[in-house]
Amino acid sequence: MYLPIFYLIYYSFSSGDTMDGFRHFSWTHYQALFADTRMISIVLNTIIIALLAATLATAIGTSGALLIERIKRRALRQNVLVLNNILMVSPDVIIGASFLIFFTFLGIKLGFWSVLLSHIAFCIPIVVLMVLPKVKELPQSLTDAAYDLGATRWQAFSQVTIPGIMDGIKAGFFMALTYSLDDFAVTFFVTGNGFSTLSVEIYSRARQGIDLEINALSTVMFLVSLLLVYVYYRFSVKPSSKGGVVK
User: Fold this and answer.
1) Strand partners of residue 239
2) What is the full per-residue pLDDT of the chain (247 aa) written as tens digits?
3) DSSP secondary structure string, 86-106?
4) Which residue, 195, 44, 69, 206, is CA-closest to 134?
5) What region does 194 belong to: left with phi over 0, alpha with psi -120 to 50, or beta?
6) Alpha carbon distance 36, 201 (integer Å)
7) Other C-beta atoms lying within 10 Å of the C-beta of residue 181
C-alpha cells in the first residue's frame, strides 16, 4: 500500500513535467505549489471546513453518545445505534446524492455552507462510535459520589464525566478531522462553483493530465497526515509507571 505513495513522492522531486522518467532532483514543483494562490486558498478552505466540522461533530456526537447511554429501553437503544451505524456503512455516493437533493429542495446554495453541513453530518456517527465505549466504561458511582459531595449537575458533568470520556472525545475529533480532510465523494456532490476542497481539486486536475504539482501537494498532505497520527498517539497513549503504555 505504501509503494504507490512513495512512488508519487519520489517523482514530486523530479525536474521533469511527467512521470515518464526521473530527471534530476529539484524543488520546482513545490515552489510552483506554494506560489499557486488558488491552491493555497483551497488548502485553507479544506482546513477550515475540517476543523469546524470536526469540532461541531465532536460536540454533537459526544452529546449523542451520552444520550444514547441514558436510554433505558434496550431495544430502543439498539435501534438508535443501528440508525447511527447505517450512516457509517452507506455508500458515500448515495449520501452525497441525498445531500445534493436535500440542499436543492431547501434552496441552499452549494458552496461553503453545504460542504460544512454535509461534513458535520457524516462525521457525527464516527464520533458517536468513538465516544460511546468510553461512556459505557465510566462508572456511574463516580457521578453519584460527586453528587454526594455536593457537586452540581454542571460540576459533575464538567469535572467527572468529560474527563472520564476525554480519550474517546479526542479519538472522535481526530477521526472526524481525518474523514473531513480526505472526503471526496460527498464533497464532490455538494460543492459549488467558486468553492472547492483539496480532494475535489486534485481529482479535477488529475482528469486534465498528470501534473507533478499534484505529486508535491499529495506529498505535503501525506506528511500532514503523519503529523496528525503522531499528535493523536502522542496525546492518547501515555507511558505507564512500569515502562509500558496505557490509553
Assistant:
1) 245
2) 788 888 888 888 887 777 777 778 888 888 888 888 888 888 899 999 999 999 999 999 999 999 988 888 888 888 888 888 888 888 888 888 999 999 999 888 888 999 999 999 999 999 999 999 898 888 888 888 888 888 888 888 888 888 888 988 988 998 899 889 888 889 999 988 778 888 888 888 777 766 788 888 888 888 887 887 787 777 665 554 454 545 5
3) HHHHS-HHHHHHHHHHHHHHH
4) 69
5) left
6) 13
7) 22
Of 247, 239, 224, 238, nearest to 50 by C-alpha is 224
How far apart CA 10 and CA 123 sit, in angstroms, is 33
Alpha helices in the chain (DSSP H): 2-12, 28-35, 37-70, 74-89, 92-106, 112-137, 140-148, 153-156, 162-164, 166-182, 185-190, 198-207, 212-236
Strand 238-239 to 245-246 pairing: antiparallel
- How big is the chain, counted in residues? 247
Helix 112-137 to helix 166-182 angle (10° resolution) is 150
The single-letter code of the amino acid at 209 is: G
Cα(first)–Cα(last) distance of the chain, in Å?
A: 28
- Compute the distance between CA of residue 217 and CA of residue 178 in angstroms, rounded to an integer: 17
Which residue is listed with cell 460536540?
A: 59
CA distance 52 to 7: 33
Cell 462525521 appears where? Answer: 123
> Cα-flanking dihedrals φ and ψ of residue 176, to 5°?
-65, -40
Q: Which residues pair with 246 in a beta bridge?
A: 238
Per DSSP, what are the bridge partners of residue 238?
246
